[in-house]
Amino acid sequence: MKSILFCLSAVVLGAALGGTFKGKLETFVDSALEKTGDLLTSDDFSKIQFILYTKYKNYSYPIANAADLLAEPAFDAGKPTALYMHGWRESNESGSVGVVSRAFLRRGSHNFVLLDWGEYVKGDYAISVLRCTAAGEAVGAAVNRMVDAGLDRDTFWPIGHSLGGQLSGVMAKSLDFKPSRITALDPAGPAFGIPATPQLSRDDAVMVDVIHTDAGVSGASSNDGTIDIWPNGGTRPQPGCHIGETDLSDSLLFCSHHRSWEFFAESIDDETAFPAVSCRSWSAFQKGLCPVNDSNVVYMGFAAPATSLKGTFFLRTGSEKPFGLGVDGTRPASAEDAEEASTADHVDVTDDTAATEDSADAEDAVEDASEDAEDGGEDDAVDTHDDATTTSTPSGGLVGLLRRLG
Ligand SMILES: *[C@@H]1O[C@H](CO)[C@@H](O)[C@H](O)[C@H]1NC(C)=O
Ligand SMILES: *[C@@H]1O[C@H](CO)[C@@H](O)[C@H](O)[C@H]1NC(C)=O
Ligand SMILES: *[C@@H]1O[C@H](CO)[C@@H](O)[C@H](O)[C@H]1NC(C)=O
Question: Which of 35, 109, 201, 256 is surrounded by the most beta carbons within 10 Å?
Answer without folding.
Answer: 256
